[in-house]
Write a structure and sequence with these properties.
The structure is a single chain. The protein is α/β, with parallel strands linked by helices. Helices cover about 40% and strands about 15% of the residues. The protein has two domains: about 210 residues, NAD(P)-binding Rossmann-like Domain (Rossmann fold); about 100 residues, UDP-galactose 4-epimerase, domain 1 (Alpha-Beta Complex), CATH 3.90.25. A seven-stranded parallel beta sheet has the order 3-2-1-4-5-6-11, with helices on both faces. Strand 1, helix 1 and strand 2 form a beta-alpha-beta unit. It is globular. The chain binds nicotinamide-adenine-dinucleotide (NAD) and uridine-diphosphate-N-acetylglucosamine. The site of uridine-diphosphate-N-acetylglucosamine has 20 residues, from helix 7 and strand 8. Homodimer. This is UDP-glucose 4-epimerase. Its EC number is 5.1.3.2. GO terms for molecular function: UDP-glucose 4-epimerase activity.
Length: about 350
């Protein structure tokens, strides 16, 4: 298939591009590099053994999106592009609503106009809000606790409404749990700007000596070791889930399908820390501090629908995730070069 990947220079997009090319798809990337470095592109080309067509523009620019669709005949779109920092979304909500919604509007309009009806959208487990009890099933009501999360809830709704207008649409809403890890080559991975907010990149930077110690946010949760449980999923398993969803959209009769992409298993903060210590071969300094506001005790998927309907299942363990995250961090202590 001829596939447009928006946000294809980013963390999850880049890993998905590699798998798409390996599966024989023709790939075009749009990314404005607002949260990616251009040096990812030659690395992707090295991994895929060919030139990658990349268009550097902001997807909210309707004319540019339209021109791209006029130039190419896409069979499908995987839409990763968007802003994703929860804390920042609270500070600049309008930027989040505008970028995430407008880019989706521009894309979906162009898809409609050019007869491209297959769309895979990056949603998030954040749409389960604060009140649900895990494991989360796809039919739970959705809500959010911050503007970033609301953009996902809203875009899901927009896409459900659009799908109802034309039965040629085939849309996958993929709700990711906690993507971590990196490609086994150690040449692509997550490269957060500034101090990481998320656990795995934070631990990795402690391991490489960039940060002094991990703060464990709370050890008084009602969980086996008192620290919070999350469903960490290897980014390679996640990327494979996109290929499975893309294939399924070719045969399903549903106009909109929602699939959780997780392992179905919760891992505690201290378990992640121990697994990372094993991977990097030394102890990592840490201290327990208070809970982070807004955190829930446990979040993990009921991953059975994806397994049943997509024939997809995450296979990599937390140990695999830490080994691959560590290789990427060790080989690229400063992330991608400028
Ligand atoms: P990322 O920031 O690494 O990738 C997003 C890419 O989109 C970046 O390369 C960025 O430069 C690009 N981009 C942003 N705004 C754009 C615009 N207006 N026009 C063109 N390009 C634009 O993030 P990621 O971790 O790879 O996440 C990909 C998607 O998955 C996002 O939609 C995110 O919300 C969603 N998601 C991520 C996580 C996670 O923990 N990483 C969890 C759930 C959902
Ligand atoms: C974060 C996002 C969420 C997103 C999810 C997907 C926030 C507030 N939420 O959630 O919207 O869908 O990623 O990847 O950013 N922890 C520490 N010390 C740290 C960092 C984290 O103890 O320095 C703990 C957290 O309290 C949490 C766990 O580690 O219990 C995982 O945290 P994180 O990686 O930020 O993911 P989420 O909280 O699940």
């Amino acid at each position: 298939m001829h596939v447009l990947v928006t946000g294809g220079a980013g963390y999850i997009g880049s890993h998905t591009v590699v798998q798409l090319k390996a599966a024989g798809h023709e790939v075009v990337v749009v990314d404005d590099f607002s949260n990616a470095k251009s040096t990812v592109v030659p690395r992707l080309e090295a991994l895929t053994g060919g030139r990658l067509e990349v268009h550097a523009f902001d997807l909210t620019d309707r004319d540019k999106v339209e021109a791209l669709f006029a130039e190419h005949k896409f069979d499908a779109v995987i839409h990763f592009a968007g802003r994703k920092a929860v804390g920042e979304s609270v500070e600049v909500p309008l930027e989040y609503y505008q970028t995430n919604l407008d880019s989706t509007f521009a894309l979906v309009r162009a898809m409609q106009r050019h007869g491209c009806f297959r769309l895979v959208f990056s949603s998030s487990a954040t749409v389960y809000g604060e009140s649900a009890t895990p494991p989360f099933t796809e039919d739970l009501p959705t809500s959010a606790t911050n503007p970033y999360g609301w953009t996902k809830v809203m875009i899901e709704q927009v896409l459900r409404d659009v799908a109802r207008t034309d039965d040629r649409w085939r849309i996958a809403l993929l709700r990711y749990f906690n993507p971590v890890g990196a490609h086994a080559s150690g040449t692509i991975g997550e490269d957060p700007a500034g101090i990481p907010n998320n656990l795995m990149p934070y631990i990795a930077q402690v391991a490489v000596g960039k940060l002094e110690k991990l703060s464990v946010f709370g050890d008084d949760y009602d969980t086996p070791d008192g620290t919070a449980l999350r469903d960490y999923i290897h980014v390679e398993d996640l990327a494979a889930g996109h290929l499975a969803a893309l294939t399924k959209l070719g045969s399903t009769d549903e106009v909109v399908s929602t699939w959780n992409l997780g392992t179905g298993h919760g891992t505690s903060v201290l378990e992640v820390l121990r697994a990372f210590e094993q991977a990097c071969g030394h102890e990592l300094p840490h201290e327990v501090v208070g809970r982070r506001p807004g955190d829930v005790a446990a979040s993990y998927a009921d991953a059975s629908r994806a397994e049943r309907e997509l024939g997809w299942k995450a296979t990599r363990t937390i140990e695999d995730m830490c080994v691959d995250q560590w290789r990427w961090q060790r080989d690229n202590p400063l992330g991608y070069p400028d």
